[in-house]
Amino acid sequence: MSSHGYEGGRLNLPFVGIATFGKNPYVADWDAIDADVAVLGAPFDFGTQFRAGARFGPRAIREASTLFSFGHGGAYDFEDDIVYLPAGGCRIVDLGDADIVHTDTRTSHANIAHGVRKCLDAGALPVVLGGDHSVNIPCIAAFEEDCARNGPIHVVQIDAHLDFVDERHGVRYGHGNPMRRAAERGYVSGLTQIGIRNVSSTAKEGYDDARAMGSDILSVRQARRLGTAGLLERIPAGGRLYLTIDIDGFDPSIAPGTGTPSHGGFLYYEVLELLDGLARRGSVVGVDLVEVAPDYDHSGTTAILAAQVLMNLIGRILHHRP
Predict the structure, then answer these.
(1) 171, exposed or middle or buried, with CB in 10 Å at 0-12, 13-18, 19+?
(2) CATH class of residue range 12-320
(3) Which conformational region is residue 119 in: left (phi greater than 0), alpha (psi within -120 to 50 degrees), or beta?
(4) How does pLDDT run across 172-230, given as a tens digit for each residue?
(5) What integer pLDDT is reported at residue 88 of this predicted model?
């Protein structure tokens, strides 16, 4: 068979082969990470308060990501006239998943944090596929030593829910708690919480606490009134940014596959333009995307949206790096 320009003589269409993230190489040895970006699955959903199923999010996102891996030597965006993720110009690997121990939140979270630390130690950008939003807690915890070396991080959250509950019936590490746990970290310099709307899992006291602890809270309607440029002005320039994206920040008309959908959410380009601006405004040092629960969306659209967001975000982070 002739190669027709494809390496190894294979066309390698999206539905062929093993579904790693973007069909990038799988690295089983976390002490041998040599990459710009390392993708880690965190298939944990014991923190959910309503519909579980986000444990299947990483597998669904990986499967969907093959759609964006045609092997064209990069991803050309004709509007920007930029080739993102150029062949040979960026190294992305898939580390597989952190080990999850059923019913054991602390051990599972510790395993996720271990994976993120391995990414940071190797100098790779950690991109974590959730899982419910509680997986952000070990992700942020993993930055303690990195921040001691390199300075604090500012957390940008895109979400329908504030996730700022301190404790409810003894629960401190569920998916309603991560932003509270982040704000408690001395190396988190502040939070920008975007897309918050409607009836939330956080009571008024949580909103008061969030603002007192340095949060800037914006609804979808407030974000739209500001526009992308105005929104970016509220986020510290030139600093280290950690991005946490809950898929329910998008409107359920395009992202129904999630446990706690909330109408009135963002559409795709609203978020993409914000993410592009963030990649230009600061240094993005960590990413997680959470709450994809594919069994609630038999079309697969939600997982495709998640994969598309991440592929475009990674491309822009790498392109805009100094």
Answers:
(1) middle
(2) alpha beta
(3) alpha
(4) 999 999 999 999 999 999 999 999 998 777 889 999 999 999 999 999 999 999 999 99
(5) 83
